[in-house]
Amino acid sequence: MDQVNINAAKTHLSRLIARVEKGEQILIAKAGKPVARLVPVRRAMRRTPGTGRQSLTIRDDFDDPLPPEIMKYFEL
Q: Which residues pair with 38 in a beta bridge?
C-alpha cells in the first residue's frame, strides 16, 4: 500500500482515483503520519427477488402460543 502526503494527494487526486479503481489502496498521510485510506468502494451485488424461496420453510404452527415451560422465561 503506497503512502501519499495530503498535498500530493490533492495535486494528483485523479491519478490516485484511477489506481484505486484498479483495486489499489492508497494511504494518505499528514506530516508523515497516516490519517486516511483511499480504497475502492465495494459494488453491491444485484439480488433477484425469490431466489431463496426454496431455502426457507415456515411451519404451520409458527405463530402459535409458546408452551408454558418456555413462556415462563419471558414473563416478569
A: 26
Amino acid at 65: P
Whether the CA torsion 56, 62, 67, 69 is positive or negative: it is positive
What is the 3-state composition of the chain as percent helix, strand, coil, each rounded to the nearest 5? Answer: 30, 20, 50
Q: E strands, the chain, where?
A: 2-5, 26-30, 33-38
Q: What is the pLDDT of residues 59-71, one digit of tens each?
A: 999 999 999 999 9
Residue type, 68: P
pTM of the model: 0.56
50: number of CA atoms within 13 Å, CB side? 0
